[in-house]
UniProtKB/TrEMBL annotation:
Signal peptide start and end residues: none
Region (Disordered) location: 867-960, 992-1051
Cellular component, GO annotation: centrosome; cytoplasm
Molecular function in Gene Ontology: dynein light intermediate chain binding; microtubule binding
Coiled-coil segments on the chain, per record: 30-85, 116-195, 370-484, 515-560, 669-825
Organism from which the protein derives: Sinocyclocheilus grahami
Organism lineage: Eukaryota, Metazoa, Chordata, Craniata, Vertebrata
Stretches with biased composition (Low complexity): 868-890, 901-918
Record protein name field: Girdin-like
Stretches with biased composition (Basic and acidic residues): 919-929, 1029-1046
Length: 1065
């Protein structure tokens, strides 16, 4: 530009000089052109200035453009940086989310670790429980060993039983053989009988022949007889020889049978030794007893048979010897006879008779032997029957033993199954314990690995951040190198593309490997979950079976206890019912006090039952509370299971989220590929500039080497981190599985604890109930004893009371008889008193009507009264009262005033008689009351005895004398000529109504007495008379009523009535 401007200035400068020279040279016409030229020059200058300005503006615009281009480049670079920052920020956000999730997981893991630590503290308790379970398992194993030993012994016994059955079958076969031998013996006996018959026939024939020979001897007494006799001796010897041969054969046969029987006895001895050996080895007692019972029977049977056969053989031999001896004797006799016949031919008949006697003796011996054989036959038949019965009994016992063995085998199989199940459960428990210990160890190792992995992750994050910063710097340097080396990129494009492709392939392979690892981990987790679910189901089924077995065992124990306790409880219930019936029967006879005592006992029992009921209700409430606690625990377990399911769902959601993130990453990878393509295009554009960077290639190669080494290190670290993450994930999975198994074990252990506690509580409650029932039983027994004692006492008291009642009834009967007799006497006396009173009233009226009567008449009347008193049947008290009455007036004759006084006194006497009349009625009523109330106490008698002197102190001499006169007057008719002395007494004039009323009262007393006697006989208690209540309420009336009792004085008082009785005391 500076060159151009210099050129223009030179050109324009030459033109101006030329114009100036031309203007000076040219004329004025040309001056106008010069002006125009000057104007043009000015315009040109102006245009130049404008051009300069515009050039300057262009330069400024170019500078502005450069600045804008630089700003654009800078903005592009900033945009690229922002894009990389956004990408990094997105990556960091994703990493932050992942880290947050990891932190949340770490917090959860820390919480789980804390919980596991807390649970580790409880591991001691669980270890103790596991030791207890181990001890229980040991006990079960010991019981299993015992049962196996018992099974082996039972199997051995069963084998021995089979052997014994086989031996029994052999014995049965031997018995069958013996029976066959017996049949053979019978046949032989029959044959012997047939032979005996044949021998008898032969004896008869021989007798006939001997008779014939005797006749021939008698007929022929010539030398021919010797030859004939010799022929007879020869025949006899031949027959005896044949018999001897037969008997020897039979002896040989019997000896053979004896040897066979000895062999059978040896077999029996062997069998006995085997049985002893079985006993020593410990066979069952039942089988031993049966064998011991059977072996002596068989031995006795065989011995009896042997003895019988030997006896038969000995008898046969004895018979044979006897027959031989007899034959020898016969031979000698025959020889002697022959000699005698030779010497004496006159005695053939005697010898024949002797022979007949001997034959008869032989026949008798044979008959006797036949009878003995028949007896032996019957004994053998009986023994055969007995043996058959024993065989049948043994068969039945063997059948029962076989059934028992079948039942035992079934029970043994069941026990074997139970033992196998228990052994499996023990093995499972041991495996679970081992797994638990391994899991505990693995949890410790996992914790350590987690700590190390966290530290390594932090280091790797720092390294990744540093590497990312280094990569960003390198990318920035590459972009700068692309701008500087656009011209030098032709040769190195292939190497860079390969390098980029390698990086891309490595990224893709790393992503695919991570996806595969995640998928494999998820599949392994699902498989482990399924296996854990299966194991959980198996464990639950095992628990159910164990619970069912435990419940079945408990039910068996309860049934056995109920079977043991049911008869005692039934007897106790029956005895209690009998005692209650006896008590109910006695309650009808007991007194109200005993009823109150029974009521108190019943109330005490009711209170005890109420307390027992309250205790049972409390126990029921406690059991319900425990059941509710178990239900709550079950709900808690359900909630835990639901939480685990939720965690599983969360894990599935995380898996889906990771899948979505994987899809996002794949999308990002596609975007990265697009960006890579754009980068490849830019790389192509930068190839031109790449040539400029050849100098820095060595540095870049060194840097690339360093980067490669760092990448290799990063890859190695990534591989190690992947392996550590895989191990961490595996450990987490194992930890989760261990946690699940541990929780299951805890739940099962808690359930077992609850069941153990419930069983212990039930045991304690049962023991308490047993002690309470025993105490109640003892109390009831004591009460029953006391009640029995009281019942015995009451029965004795009742018997005494019945005896006393009978005695009292008899005494009451005697008393009633006495009272009736006394009442009759009283009645007669009352009639006499009434008549005397009537006469007395009549005399008083006559005295009132004849006031002019003299004192002599009064003395006459007194004399009459004295005469009547001499003839009266009353006792001395009445005569003494009459004497007192007679001594009261003076012996001199009174004057007129005395007569007036006498009249007044007579009037008062009349008045007193009226009062005496009422007193007499009262005394009659009192007697009635006394007759009704015979069972009054002596207090009443004392009051009556105290009332007598009070009555005697009162001044009623006239009425008393009148009454005494009434008693003293005899019942005689008046005579003519005795006007004053034989005046009619008051009994002829007194009104009959009073007498009738008195008689009615007496009759009423008699009727009341009779009804009282009847009521006492009927056993009813006498009710108190209202008259007694009236007497108790009014003692004054009683005193007035007792006043006329002085009339009857001592012989007619209540005390006199009850003398010589029980009530006299």
């Amino acid at each position: 530009m500076q060159g151009k401007e210099t050129i223009k200035s030179v050109v324009f400068g030459d033109d101006s000089s030329l114009t100036e020279s031309a203007s000076s040279r040219l004329p004025l016409s040309q001056q106008h052109l010069a002006l125009e030229l000057t104007d043009a020059k000015a315009k040109i200058k102006r245009l130049r200035q404008e051009l300069e300005e515009k050039s300057e503006q262009l330069l400024d615009c170019r500078q502005d453009l450069d600045n804008v281009e630089a700003e654009l480049k800078r903005l592009q670079q900033e945009n690229m940086q922002l894009l990389t920052d956004a990408r990094a920020a997105r990556m960091y956000r994703d990493e932050l989310d992942a880290m947050k999730e990891r932190a949340i997981r770490a917090d959860k893991l820390e919480g789980e670790v804390a919980r596991y630590r807390d649970k580790l503290h409880n591991m001691n308790f669980y270890k103790v429980k596991l030791e207890e379970l181990k001890e229980d398992n040991q006990v079960l194993m010991e019981s299993k060993a015992m049962l196996e030993e018992e099974l082996q012994s039972v199997k051995a016994r069963s084998d021995k039983l089979h052997q014994l059955e086989k031996h029994n079958l052999l014995l049965e076969s031997k018995l069958h053989d013996m029976e066959e031998e017996r049949t053979v013996d019978r046949r032989r006996i029959e044959e012997l009988l047939e032979r005996n018959v044949i021998l008898e026939l032969s004896q008869k024939r021989s007798m006939e022949e001997s008779q014939r020979l005797g006749w021939e001897l008698e007929l022929a007494k010539n030398p021919q007889q010797n030859s004939e006799l010799k022929s007879l001796g020869q025949e006899v010897t031949e027959k005896t020889c044949s018999r001897l041969l037969k008997l020897e054969k039979e002896n040989q046969r019997l000896l053979k049978t004896l040897k066979e029987l000895q062999g059978t006895s040896h077999s029996l001895d062997e069998f006995i030794s085997e049985s002893k050996h079985i006993e020593e080895n410990g066979m069952m007692d039942i089988i031993d007893s049966k064998i011991q019972k059977s072996t002596p029977a068989f031995a006795n049977m065989h011995n009896d048979r042997i003895i019988i056969k030997t006896s038969n053989q000995s008898l046969d031999t004895e018979h044979l010897h006897a027959s031989l001896e007899s034959t020898n004797g016969n031979l000698h006799c025959l020889e002697v006879e022959l000699h005698e016949l030779e010497t004496e031919n006159q005695r053939p008949q005697v010898n024949i008779y002797q022979n007949q006697g001997q034959v008869d003796i032989v026949n008798q011996g044979l008959v006797h032997e036949n009878g003995q054989l028949e007896q032996d036959k019957s004994c053998l038949v009986k023994e055969n029957r007995r043996l058959r019965q024993q065989v049948k009994i043994q068969e039945a016992s063997l059948d029962s033993s076989n059934l028992k063995l079948v039942v035992l085998e079934k029970e043994n199989r069941a026990l074997v199954k139970k033992i196998n199940f228990l052994s499996e459960s023990c093995a499972k428990n041991k495996e679970i314990e081992m797994e638990n210990q391994e899991l505990i160890q693995q949890t410790g190792v996992d914790k350590r690995m987690m700590m190390t992995l966290r530290e390594e992750l932090l280091d790797q994050r720092l390294k990744l951040q540093q590497k990312e910063s280094d990569l960003e710097k390198l990318a920035y340097e590459l972009e700068r190198m692309r701008l500087n080396q656009e011209t030098q990129m032709g040769d190195h494009e292939a190497g860079d593309q390969r390098y980029c492709k390698q990086l891309e392939s490595e990224l893709e392979s790393s992503l695919m490997k991570s996806l595969k690892i995640k998928k494999e981990r998820m599949a392994a987790l699902e498989a482990r979950l399924q296996e854990s679910a299966k194991i959980n189901q198996q464990l639950r089924q095992d628990l159910k079976t164990v619970k069912q077995n435990y419940e079945a065992l408990l039910q068996r124990d309860e049934e056995e206890k109920a079977g043991q306790c049911s008869p005692t409880e039934w007897t106790w219930h029956r005895e209690s019912q009998e005692a209650t019936w006896a008590l109910l029967k006695l309650k009808d006879r007991l007194i109200e006090v005993e009823r109150n005592v029974e009521k108190s006992t019943v109330t005490s029992q009711n209170s005890s039952l109420m307390t027992h009921n309250a205790q049972l209700q409390r126990k029921w409430q406690s059991s319900e509370a425990e059941r509710e606690g178990a239900i709550r625990e079950r709900e808690d377990l359900r909630t835990v299971n639901e939480l685990l399911l939720r965690d599983h769902e969360r894990l599935s959601v995380l898996h889906e989220r990771q899948a979505a993130e994987m899809e996002v990453l794949s999308h990002r990878y596609s975007t990265m590929e697009n960006s890579h393509r754009t980068l490849e295009i830019e790389h192509r554009s930068l190839e031109d500039r790449y040539n400029k960077l050849l100098q820095q290639r060595a540095q870049l190669e060194g840097l690339e080497r360093a980067l490669r080494e760092e990448q290799q290190k990063m890859q190695n670290e990534i591989c190690t981190s992947r392996s550590t993450t895989a191990e961490c994930q595996r450990l987490r999975d194992e930890k989760d599985w261990l946690n699940q198994t541990y929780q299951k074990l805890l739940a099962e252990n808690e359930e077992l604890q609850v069941e153990h506690k419930s069983i212990k509580s039930q045991l304690n409650s049962c023991k308490l109930e047993q002690t309470q029932l025993e105490s109640e039983l003892s109390k009831l027994k004591q009460q029953n004893q006391q009640l029995e004692i009281t019942c015995i006492k009451l029965t004795n008291q009742c018997e005494l009371l019945t005896q006393l009642k009978a005695n009292l009834e008899e005494e009451n009967r005697h008393l009633l008889d006495q009272i009736q007799s006394l009442m009759l006497q009283n009645r007669t006396l009352l009639d006499q008193t009434m008549e005397s009173k009537d006469l007395f009233h009549v005399e008083q009226r006559q005295y009132i009507r004849a006031p002019s009567a003299s004192s002599g008449e009064f003395s006459i009347s007194l004399e009459n009264e004295a005469w009547s008193s001499d003839s009266s049947p009353l006792p001395d008290p009445l005569s003494s009262s009459r004497q007192r009455f007679s001594d009261s007036p003076s012996p001199a004759r009174p004057n007129h005033e005395d007569l007036r006084q006498g009249y007044s006194s007579s009037g008062s006497g009349v008045r007193r008689t009226s009062s005496g009349k009422s007193a007499g009625e009262r005394s009659a009523q009192k007697l009635d009351k006394a007759s009704i109330g015979l069972y009054k106490t002596q207090s009443v008698q004392s009051t009556e005895s105290e009332s007598k002197p009070a009555l005697e102190t009162q001044g009623k001499s006239s009425s008393v004398s009148g009454c005494l006169n009434c008693f003293a007057t005899p019942m005689r008719s008046p005579k003519t000529g005795q006007a004053l002395s034989t005046l009619p007494r008051a009994s002829c004039v007194i009104s009959t109504s009073e007498g009738n009323s008195r008689r009615a009262s007496v009759h009423s007393t008699m009727s009341v007495k009779s009804t009282g006697a009847v009521s006492s006989k009927n056993g009813t208690e006498p009710q108190p008379d209202p008259s007694d209540e009236v007497l108790k309420e009014s003692p004054d009336l009683e005193e007035e009523d007792h006043k006329p009792e002085q009339l009857f004085d001592s012989p007619f008082t209540i005390d006199s009535v009850f003398t010589n009785t029980i009530f006299s005391e």
